[in-house]
Write a structure and sequence with these properties.
heterodimer; A: mainly alpha; ABC transporter involved in vitamin B12 uptake, BtuC; 12 helices; B: about 260 residues; alpha/beta; Rossmann fold
Chain lengths: ~260, ~260
């Protein structure tokens, strides 16, 4: 009877473990709004996936990566300030997704589940996707950790030292897109970035090195998933938002507690 | 004759018709310290960025020795405060670094005690030394230093210049420095190149400080220096293409 709960826990822990380290990069590189924009466009990916009858995860990944490329190209042209550009893309992509979904009359989509996530409804296949995608993300992060970090610390120094900065930047976007695709089931498009940012921001208070921050972010994300699931089971609250509330609660504790790690 | 590491050949760069650099010729050889001076906006940093491959020249060519290996020290280092990073971890990011070299390099620069410090809490002088350490760990035969003494007090500046000179003596590498303070840097320099969109004059420090083009930009040495250093008196006007408009047929600074 608790099968679905166990599956939710396993899936949630998988997503949180991946979202933590990547969230650290999102925080370091100030990509929060960028992540939001990609996440919002994921709904359009879902609609297109249904429309063309292709795997939804694949559709989301393709759309996110495509949008990331468009963003980078537009950014380089300096037509308009980046935050404005992101705002335009984020909300038009979300609206376009909602409009597209409304055209799919023969398919009933649980819109709320896509917007806010439905951890309790994840299937065995979803768990495979989460762990397959998660493993890919973590492996790539480990393999390319040094160039990713070197680029994050200082792009020009990294470039002069011979790191292929453009390729690494693309890789990071691809990773963010992957995480969004696998995390969508858990917290939904509107809350995905919070699962990346909040644990990472909490971890900042407790860490002295980048690796520490990335790993502690994973742990805090997992704690949030456990807490959120428990709260959801206990009080019948929506799971996705409960996980985020739990993460925010941990953030508050970390930043108001008197424990101060020496810099 | 020392090996020539880099030569700029008629380098020019312009944006939207505005000329930033025009017809720059200069070269750096092994064991030579070249200092690039010029007023703000004269294109010093742009020239450095072209050398580093961070920016493309619109005309001319940079000829690099095939064994050229650059150690670059940027003007300043901004690391996002959300990124926890110790000096050791920062230096370990050098591509292909031999991590056993980190401590000896820090010792050489007199900052071994900072190895476990967070990069965010370093003072100006300490940051400059950490950046210099990073440049050295890249095993360069050319050090490129963009305003290496920025944010460092006068005593610290003298120390840093001495350090740079001793590194040159030890490694035999070439050094290209950007500077706009003149007096301290002069003593440690083999060649000074004074630029202001174009090369105004170049040569030994003695030669350059006596050159009318230099004096036009920076004042006569020995005159009221506090004013002379900061006042940039242009005695000539640059055309849109960066050339000098004057009656001087050599298109050079008006003397």
């Amino acid at each position: 009877m608790l099968d679905f709960l166990l599956r939710a826990l396993i899936g949630g822990l998988g997503v949180a473990s991946v979202a933590g380290p990547l969230g650290a990069f999102v925080v370091w590189r100030r990509m929060a709004y960028f992540g939001d924009t990609l996440a919002h466009s994921a709904l359009l990916g879902v609609a297109l996936g249904f429309l063309f009858d292709i795997n939804l995860n694949l559709a989301i990944i393709v759309l996110c990566v495509g949008l990331a490329l468009v963003l980078v190209t537009l950014q380089k042209k300096h037509i308009i300030a980046t935050d404005t550009l992101l705002g335009i893309l984020a909300h038009s992509a979300l609206s376009l997704g909602l409009v597209a979904v409304s055209f799919l009359d023969n398919i009933r989509i649980d819109l709320m589940a896509y917007l806010f996530g439905d951890l309790l409804a994840i299937s065995q296949t979803d768990v495979y996707w989460i762990y397959g995608g998660g493993l890919a993300v973590i492996s790539l992060l480990v393999i390319f950790w040094k160039p990713l970090l070197a680029m994050t610390v200082n792009e020009e120094l990294a470039k002069v030292e011979g790191y292929p900065v453009e390729a690494i930047r693309l890789l990071l976007m691809l990773l963010v897109a992957l995480v969004i695709a696998v995390a969508m089931k858990i917290v939904g498009v509107l809350l995905i970035t919070s699962l990346m940012i909040i644990p990472a921001a909490t971890a900042r208070k407790l860490s002295k090195t980048p690796v520490q921050m990335a790993s502690i972010a994973s742990v805090i994300g997992c704690l949030s998933v456990c807490g959120g699931l428990w709260a959801s089971y206990q009080w019948d609250t929506p799971t996705g938002p409960s996980v985020v509330v739990c993460a925010a609660f941990l953030f508050l504790i970390a930043y108001t507690s008197p424990i101060q790690r020496k810099m | 004759m020392n090996k020539q590491l880099v030569a700029f050949e008629k380098i020019g760069i312009s944006f939207d018709g505005r000329v930033l650099l025009n017809n720059i010729d200069m070269s750096i050889s092994e064991g030579e310290i070249v200092t690039l001076i010029g007023p703000n906006g004269s294109g010093k940093s742009t020239l450095i960025r072209i050398l580093l491959g961070l920016q493309a020249a619109t005309s001319g060519e940079v000829v690099r020795h095939k064994a050229l290996r650059i150690g670059y020290m940027p003007q300043k280092l901004h690391i996002d405060p959300t990124l926890p990073l110790t000096v050791k971890h920062f230096l370990a990011l050098v591509r292909g670094v031999d991590k056993r070299q980190i401590l000896p390099t820090l010792e050489k620069l007199g900052i071994a005690h900072l190895i476990h410090s967070q990069v965010h809490v370093l003072s100006g002088g300490e940051t400059q030394r950490v950046l210099l350490a990073r440049a050295l760990l890249n095993k360069p035969n050319l050090l490129v230093l963009d305003e290496p003494v920025q944010g460092v007090d006068v005593n610290g500046q003298v120390e840093l210049y001495n350090l740079i000179e001793s590194i040159r003596d030890e490694l035999g590498c070439g050094v290209l420095m950007v500077s706009h303070d003149l007096h301290l840097v002069m003593a440690k320099t083999d060649t000074v190149v004074c630029i202001n969109q174009h090369v105004c004059c170049s040569g030994s420090p003695q030669h350059v400080t006596g050159h009318p083009a230099y004096q036009a930009l920076f004042g006569v040495p020995g005159a009221d220096e506090t004013i002379a250093i900061y006042a940039h008196q242009h005695d000539h006007v640059h055309e849109d293409d960066g050339s000098v408009s004057s009656d001087d047929p050599h298109k050079h600074c008006h003397h």
